[in-house]
């Protein structure tokens, strides 16, 4: 007859098999998985390596975005600002019907613009080697030249905006601009100081032309005798200085022209940025 093994004896046999014999003694225990100190240190090293790697990845993701912003700022926004100044600098509003009049700049404005560009390079506001180089691609050199051309035309029109159109005030303003620009050619200063100097000179010229001289200019009337009877002082200065008659909205247009020009100079970097990052 086969011997039937009871469940209790089977459990005892299983437990007996789990016993380990060490030095002739029976030790009853459970198997535990213990991590060595080397494994712990290895995990710490892995975490330390992953953290800088993730940080570097974030920096790499942010860097192309910043470079692209500089790219759009230099090659799209800055030329648009200078082209806007070029358009606004020659606009006038007729005193009779507020019609738009576009005045061409006099020759002296081109001379002032050339001197002003030389000042930009001397003061470090623009660096020639940072805009044109043999290491740059042909397309980049052409794009940089286009930006500087728009800056040149905007400079011409900003002087056209601030100079009186004709008469004695034109020659007085032209002499003051020439004297200021010529003296600055022989003075060492930084780009920030040049911007401050230009801002103060342009502000003084704007106030003198569009506030003081505009106040002295007589409004357009049907007859010269009627103007003498109504505004004798203004008619006298208009005749003496040969001041042109424009609508009051002209001053608002030229105010934004000056603001946009100074803003474009502030946003223009000394050196050109790299190509657009993909």
What does this protein look like?
By secondary structure, the chain is mainly alpha-helical. It has ten helices and four strands. It has a domain at 67-218 and 244-267. Helix content is 68%, strand content 4%. Strands 1-2 form a two-stranded antiparallel sheet. The chain has a two-stranded antiparallel ribbon with strand order 3-4. A hairpin with a 6-residue loop joins strand 3 (91-93) and strand 4. Helix 3 runs parallel beside helix 6 (168-184). The longest helix is centred in the N-terminal third of the chain and has 53 residues, at 37-89.
SSE layout:
Elements: H1 7-17, E1 20-22, E2 25-27, H2 37-89, E3 91-93, E4 100-102, H3 107-122, H4 128-131, H5 138-162, H6 168-184, H7 191-216, H8 224-230, H9 232-241, H10 249-267
Antiparallel strand pairs: 1-2, 3-4
């Amino acid at each position: 007859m086969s011997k039937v093994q009871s469940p209790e004896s089977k459990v005892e046999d299983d437990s007996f098999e789990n016993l380990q014999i060490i030095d002739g003694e029976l030790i009853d225990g459970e198997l535990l998985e213990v991590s060595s100190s080397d494994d712990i240190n290895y995990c710490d090293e892995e975490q330390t390596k992953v953290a800088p790697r993730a940080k570097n990845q974030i920096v790499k993701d942010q860097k192309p975005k910043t470079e692209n912003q500089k790219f759009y700022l230099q090659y799209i926004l800055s030329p648009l600002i200078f082209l806007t100044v070029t358009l606004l600098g020659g606009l006038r509003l007729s005193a009779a019907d507020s019609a738009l009049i576009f005045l061409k700049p006099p020759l002296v404005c081109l001379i002032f613009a050339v001197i002003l560009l030389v000042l930009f390079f001397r003061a470090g506001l623009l660096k020639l080697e940072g805009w044109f180089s043999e290491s740059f691609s042909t397309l980049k050199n052409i794009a940089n030249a286009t930006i500087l051309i728009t800056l040149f035309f905007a400079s011409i029109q900003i002087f056209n905006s601030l100079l009186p159109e004709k008469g004695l005030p034109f020659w007085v303003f032209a002499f003051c601009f020439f004297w200021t620009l010529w003296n600055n050619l022989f003075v060492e200063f930084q780009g920030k100081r040049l911007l401050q100097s230009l801002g103060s000179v342009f502000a003084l010229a704007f106030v003198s032309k569009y506030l003081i001289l505009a106040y002295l200019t007589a409004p357009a009337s049907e007859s010269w005798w009627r103007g003498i009877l109504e505004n004798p002082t203004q008619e006298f200065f208009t005749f003496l200085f040969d001041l042109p008659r424009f609508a009051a909205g002209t001053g608002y247009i030229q105010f934004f022209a000056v603001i946009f020009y100074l803003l474009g100079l502030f946003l223009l970097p000394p050196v050109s940025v790299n190509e657009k990052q993909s």
